[in-house]
Amino acid sequence: MFHLLRTFLGFYIEPNVFGPGLSISHPGTIIVNGNARIGENCRIHVCTVIGIKAGSEDENLTPKIGNNIYIGAGAKIFGDIKIADGIAIGANSVVNKSFTEPNIGIAGVPARKINDKGSESLLPNKELEALKENYPELFKKSKE
């Protein structure tokens, strides 16, 4: 079933790569190496690739990405790098080095820090929390 769903939606994401709260903006090409690790509440857009260092055969040289990350459409994130919590990655950026300062915006080819805004306003967390508060019945687990 997983492989069928993956093909239908157009993404290649191995199980257990993302923490809870993954938000995929809409169906489209998304490729994530199975050894990458991405934390909670990640918002990811189409045409994104998260993979190993170019030219490497070591599958462990993959990104480790923190919590509350926004990844814009077309972003490419490669190599044995670390991305701190709360970072917003701009569309079509190429991220090939670590960014350890939390709550910043990065963009460009290659990516560089562009602001101190971070991802907070780009993630659907506030809307989700409001839904949970106003409609708790929608979030109760079924006993079936």
Features:
single chain; 144 residues; alpha/beta; UDP N-Acetylglucosamine Acyltransferase, domain 1; 6-stranded mixed sheet; 14 strands; globular; Ser_O-AcTrfase; serine O-acetyltransferase activity; Serine O-acetyltransferase; Trimer_LpxA-like_sf; transferase
Describe this entry's structure for a reader:
The protein has 144 residues and is α/β, with parallel strands linked by helices. The protein has one domain (1-143): 3 Solenoid (UDP N-Acetylglucosamine Acyltransferase, domain 1), CATH 2.160.10. It is 12% helix and 25% strand. The protein contains two helices and 14 strands; from the N terminus they run αββββββββββββββα. The protein has helices spanning 2-9, 125-134; strands spanning 11-13, 23-24, 30-32, 37-38, 43-44, 48-51, 64-65, 70-71, 76-78, 82-83, 88-89, 94-95, 105-107, 112-115. The strands form three sheets. A six-stranded mixed beta sheet has the order 2-5-8-11-13-14, with no helix packed on it. β13 and β14 (112-115) form a beta hairpin. The longest helix has 10 residues, at 125-134. The protein is globular, with a radius of gyration of 16 Å. The two termini are 20 Å apart. The mean pLDDT is 88.
Q: How many domain modules?
A: 1
Number of strands: 14
Provide the CATH architecture.
3 Solenoid
| Strand and helix order | HEEEEEEEEEEEEEEH
**Low-confidence blocks of residues:** none
Task: State mean pLDDT (0 to 100 scale).
Answer: 88
Strand line-up in the sheet with most strands: 2-5-8-11-13-14
In whole angstroms, the N-to-C terminal distance is: 20 Å
Overall CATH class:
Mainly Beta
Major sheet description: 6 strands, mixed
